[in-house]
Design a protein that fits this description.
With 430 residues, the chain is α/β, with parallel strands linked by helices. It folds into two domains: 194 residues, Rossmann fold (3-Layer(aba) Sandwich), CATH 3.40.50; 191 residues, Dihydrodipicolinate Reductase, domain 2. It is 34% helix and 19% strand. Strands 14-13-12-11-7-10-9-8-15 form a nine-stranded mixed beta sheet. A six-stranded parallel beta sheet has the order 3-2-1-4-5-6, sandwiched between helices. Helix 2 crosses helix 12 and helix 11 crosses helix 13. The radius of gyration is 21 Å and the shape is globular.
């Protein structure tokens, strides 16, 4: 990878050039497991509900796979996940996780990577993704990485460097930005790219939903245990709502723009309803306007408040028409000279991610989603920066940000205060 994209002097042009290169797939990787004759051994790192779901989908993706190792920060989470997977009759025979291959703690990921697995599923809180991804690729493992892939710009730069290494080593990197694997979204985006609505003038990304979970602190929990158990509600672990969840529809807009990213963002956000202690210090709403070099704008809005109307969708306004994209029934539509809505076959996008990942490994042509998974993560982080600081944030500023969200050390006894809620106009850009 060019050093330009990993040092503080990186420019938008060098970042885009490097990340585009990182997204390319090696011509042909050695087909070590071609034809399905060899067993592909899977390791799960992060045993929450999404991790359990990803493991089940991986085990359903190929006839000759086994789950052989698991890791989590917490023993109870690991054992609950293992029990859930074993209860699934469709995959129970593919689970070969011995007690000695159940690893717990901050360094448990290292033990999984040392346990002779071929594919790892990275489904911990997003803060850990750059560290685990780097270690997995260096260890020669194919990777499924849940979204987002970082919570800060140094993490994104690390991920892009690792993506380039994966390309050189012929390793698969598939992202959990699952809407890109949905049949209907694929067909709709293909038509828009083909000119169905003309030139894109404006985009809108909505993510209005009810309240998310929050866990009250138990007396016996240390600061680190509390924040790790309640990870969604701490920016250093989740990236905040705009990054952890709204990244899905921001990525759809990036896809619609043919993976072009904006030059500037300005917006607002705050914490209005989800204010109790169990909700940590994250915002419950964001509203960001992203501006592209050619003049198009992306209006991004997300809200996480109960008792309100919900809407998760993207809208495209073009010079010749408009389009809507959502997961609702008949939610994929184009209104132009001829109206169209998607009526083709439906698929389970979560399963398709893994189907295509394992098929690419078997074929010796590993998928590499690395460029867009990293850049769309930065798109979401850029919006959070704009809301937290109240400043206009350029892409170059976001790329080169020195803000690194991490604790003093990874230790259960480390003292961690709850950070103050970001205050626009007062919270500095770093």
């Amino acid at each position: 990878m060019s050093t330009d994209s990993t040092n503080p002097g990186a420019t938008r042009r060098s970042f885009l050039k490097t990340s585009a290169a990182a997204g390319a797939v090696l011509a042909v990787a050695p087909a070590v497991h071609a034809g399905g004759g060899d067993t592909l051994k899977i390791g799960l790192i992060g045993c929450g509900s999404r991790g359990s779901g990803a493991a089940a989908q991986a085990l359903n993706a190929d006839k000759n796979v086994k789950l052989v190792a698991m890791a989590d920060a917490f023993e109870d989470r690991l054992q609950s996940s293992l029990a859930t997977l074993k209860d699934d009759e469709k995959i129970a025979a593919k689970i070969d996780v011995k007690p000695e291959r159940c690893f717990v703690g901050f360094n448990a990921y290292k033990d999984v990577l040392a346990s002779d697995v071929d594919v790892v599923l990275l489904t911990t809180p997003p803060h850990f993704r750059p560290l685990h991804f780097d270690a997995a690729i260096k260890a020669g493992k194919h990777v499924f990485a849940e979204k987002p892939v970082a919570v800060d710009a140094p993490g994104v730069r690390s991920v892009l460097a690792t993506v380039e290494l994966a390309k050189k080593k012929g390793l698969a990197v598939v992202s959990g930005l699952c809407l890109r694997y949905d049949n209907g979204f694929r067909e709709t985006v293909k038509r828009i790219h083909g000119g169905a609505v003309g030139d894109v003038v404006a985009l809108q990304a909505n993510d209005y939903r009810g309240s998310n979970w929050g866990k009250p602190r138990k007396p016996e929990w240390s600061d680190m245990q509390y924040q790790m158990r309640n990870w969604y509600n701490f920016t250093w672990l989740s990236g905040d709502f705009n990054v952890e969840q709204h990244v899905h529809y921001l990525d759809i807009c990036a896809w619609l723009m043919k993976n072009e990213y904006p030059v500037r963002a300005i917006g607002t956000g705050g914490r209005q309803v989800r204010t109790r202690a169990e909700y940590g210090h994250i915002y419950d709403h964001f509203s960001i306007v992203y501006e592209y070099a050619g003049g198009a704008k992306l209006f991004s809005n997300c809200r996480q408040q109960p008792g309100c109307s919900n809407d998760m969708s993207a809208v495209v306004l073009g010079s010749k028409g408009r389009a809507g994209l959502s997961e609702r029934r008949k939610g994929l539509v184009i209104h132009a000279a001829t109206d169209w809505f998607y009526s083709g076959p439906e698929n389970n996008m979560y399963q398709t991610e893994h189907d295509e990942l394992f098929a690419s490994i078997r074929a010796g042509r590993p998928l590499n989603n690395g460029a867009y998974m990293a850049r769309s993560t930065l798109l979401a982080i850029m919006g959070r920066m704009a809301a937290y600081t109240g400043k206009a944030i350029t892409w170059d500023m976001a790329v080169n940000s020195k803000e690194e969200l991490k604790p003093p050390r990874y230790d259960w006894d480390v003292k961690l205060s709850v950070p103050p809620v970001a205050m626009p106009g007062r919270t500095p850009f770093v």
